[in-house]
Amino acid sequence: MAGSTTMNGLAGSSEVRPRHATESLPFRWLWITIALLFVGLILILPLVTVIYEGLKKGVELYLTALIEPDAISALKLTLLVALIAVPLNTLFGVAAAWTITKFQFRGKNILLTLIDLPFAVSPVISGLVYVLLFGARGWFGPFLEANHLQIVYAVPGIILATTFVTFPFVARELIPLMQAQGKQEEEAAASLGAKGWHIFWHVTMPNIKWGLLYGIILCNARAIGEFGAVSVVSGHIRGETNTLPLHIEILYNEYQFSAAFAVASLLVALALVTLVAKSLIERRQQRAAARNRMN
Q1: What is the arithmetic mean of pLDDT over 121-149?
Q2: Which of 30, 89, 93, 114 pairs as cysteine with 171 (C-beta 3.0–4.6 A)?
Q3: How far is 74 from 71, CA to CA, in rounded Å?
Q4: What does the DSSP assignment read for 259-281?
Q5: Cα separation, 211 vs 202, whole angstroms
Q6: pLDDT, tens digit, for every residue of 23-73?
Q7: What is the secondary structure of the chain as a DSSP string?
């Protein structure tokens, strides 16, 4: 009995988290207050201001700004660009992560550096690069003009620019995850006679599905909100090459502040949907990790 009591006492004491010497009550409340003030001033207040300014002149004007033909055209183009750029980046991200984590080859470090390139280059510069390549006086400009093809100041240029600035997100989400998982399961499946695609769909994909969805959500959020690169290659043609961020800029520059904030609230709504989806996926990831540890 004495031994069991002693063991229970030790077990109970080991479950109590030791308090760090700096965790005094004033110290904790100071940092909590700083964090809450920062979040409130930098994140929450601007979002509330956008919604307030959009509804400031009434619901009727708010809805009119959203159903205006130019606004609907900008929304359609934004969704179209995301529907093309995100799957392309997903395909590239999975292929790049699979190649980098499962194989050894020359130039692996160069490939990793190139994946990070859009993080280091300003979006405006990436847009200017496409103008240099495909503009009327660019390297391929005469060829495109001779064949009646237009990339810059048209939808293809917007898709290219958006794809460039968003393509690291899926790859950078999957590479650390697949490196941590290792190659043991794939090698075991191969030793049992499984082939490449069978191994990918039945062994690799179940292990990376939540990380893949997380990367897709981040990529989609950036594609919808991209401004710099798209602004350079779009030409700002109303009803044709304006995405939602560009349409908001035009409304604001024309002093249509309520309409600009109304359309901006639409982007806020899309961002909130993305945030909710991101939180749900993170929760699923945590549950899956906890089940794996228990097994």
Answers
A1: 88
A2: 93
A3: 5
A4: HHHHHHHHHHHHHHHHHHHHHHH
A5: 16
A6: 677 778 888 899 999 888 888 888 888 888 888 888 888 888 889 999 999
A7: -HHHHHHHHHHHHHHSPPPPTT--HHHHHHHHHHHHHHHIIIIIHHHHHHHHHHHTT-HHHHHHHHHSHHHHHHHHHHHHHHHHHHHHHHHHHHHHHHHHHH---TTHHHHHHHHTHHHHS-HHHHHHHHHHHHSTTSTTHHHHHHTT---TTSHHHHHHHHHHHHTHHHHHHHHHHHHHH-SHHHHHHHHTT--HHHHIIIIIHHHHHHHHHHHHHHHHHHHHH--HHHHHHH---TTTT--HHHHHHHHHHTT-HHHHHHHHHHHHHHHHHHHHHHHHHHHHHHHHHHHHHH-
Contact assessment for residue 214 and residue 278, using Cβ atoms and an 8 Å cutoff? yes
User: What is the mean predicted confidence (pLDDT) over 158-179?
Assistant: 92
Could you tell me the two tokens for 248? 């908001």
Record the pTM.
0.79
CA distance 216 to 40: 28
Tokens found for residue 143 = 């060829």
Instruction: Tell me the DSSP string of 7-32.
Output: HHHHHHHHHSPPPPTT--HHHHHHHH
The set of residues, in sequence order, having a beta carbon less than 8 Å from that of 88 and lying 6+ positions away, is: 163, 167
Tell me which amino acid residue 168 is: P
Separation CA 69–CA 38 (nearest Å):
38
